Amino acid sequence: MIDGKYIGLILALCSSLLIGTSFVITKKGLQKSKTTNGHSSDSYQYLKNPVWWAGMITMIAGELLNFVGYTFAPAILITPLGALSVIIGAIMAAIFLKERLGPIGIIGCVLSLIGAVIIVLHAPEDPDVQSVQELLSYMLQPGFIVYGVLVVIVAILMIWRAVPRWGRTKPIVYVTICSLVGSLSVMAIKAFGIAVRLTISGTNQFTHPSTYFFMVMCIICILIQLNYFNKALDTFSTNVVNPIYFVFFTTATLVASAIMYHGWNSAGVVNTISLVCGFLIIFMGVYLLDSIARGGTAAQNEMAMKGPRQRQSFSVSQEELAIKSPDEKSGRAFEVGSTSNLVKRSRAASI
C-alpha cells in the first residue's frame, strides 16, 4: 500500500499543475471578454465566457486537491510544493500568453518564493480543531476580533480610496484586498468544512447558527476575492500577479492563523528570526515585481495617450485641408514643394 506521505505529494504536484494552468486559462478568458472600454473586469463580461469558467473550475479543482493533500502529508512537505504553481504559471504564460518577466522579474519571483517557503517552514503549527464551536471560540478571542476588524477597515479603505487612484498602476492594490479578505475566507472555509465533515459522520452541525454564519462568510469573502483577483489578472501580466498573490495570500493566512491560535507565543528565537528574514526577502522580491508592473503600465499608458493625440492631430490637419478652397490647396502644395526644393538645394551646396 502507498504511504500517505507519497499520496499527499502526488496530490500537491497535481494541485500546483492545475492552479498554475488556471491562471493562464482565466487570463485567456478575460482577454476574450475585453469590451470597448478595454477592461472586461469592469463590466463583468467574463462571466459569460466559457473559457473564464474553465479557468475558475481548474483553480477550484487544484485548491481541493491541495486541501486533501494536507490530510495525507504534513504541511512542511505540501506547502513548499505550492510554489511550483508560480513556476508552472510562468512557463505556461510564456508559451500561450507571450508574457516574459526578464532577468529582474525572475530574480523578484525567486526571492518571493524563497521568502514564502521560509515563512511557511518556520511558522507556528495550528492545533487540531475538531468542532465548529471550538473554532468559533478561537475566532471570538480579542486578538482575532481586532485582526478581523482591521482587515475589514483596510479592505474598505483600499476599495474606496486606493483602487480608483492606483488600481490600474500597482498590482499590490488588488492583490492586497484579495489576500486580506482571503485570510478570513480560509478560516471560514475550514470551519464550514468541519461542519460538513461532522454532519456526514452523523453529528448534524446545521442546527447551529454558527454553521450558517461561516457559510455566508465564505460566500462574501470568495466573491470579493474573485472580483479583485480578476481585476488584477485583467490589468497586469500573469507573471507579476501570480507570485505576488501567492506570497501575499500565504503570508496573510499564516498571520491570521498565528493570531487566532496564539502561535507567536510558542515560536522560539530561531523561528522568529527566520520569519523576519522571510518577510524581508519577500519585500525585496515583491518590490522588484511591482517595479516591473509599474514600468509596463506606464509604457502602455504612454502609448495609449500618444496614439489618440497623433490621430487627432492628423485628423485635424485633414479637416483643415478639406475646408480650404482649391486655390488655397494649390498654394499650400506650392509652399510645400518650394520648401522641399530649398532643402534639396541646401544639401547639394553643403556637399
From TrEMBL:
Q: Which UniProt keywords apply?
A: Membrane, Transmembrane, Transmembrane helix
Lineage summary: Eukaryota, Fungi, Fungi incertae sedis, Mucoromycota, Mucoromycotina
The cellular location(s) given in this protein's UniProt record come to: Membrane
Extract one GO cellular component term from the record. Answer: membrane
Task: List all membrane-crossing ranges.
Answer: 6-25, 76-97, 104-123, 135-160, 172-200, 212-229, 241-261, 267-289
- Per the record, the domain of life is Eukaryota
Provide the topology term for how it sits in the membrane.
Multi-pass membrane protein
**Which molecular function terms from Gene Ontology are attached?**
magnesium ion transmembrane transporter activity
What is the name listed in the Swiss-Prot or TrEMBL entry for this protein?
Magnesium transporter
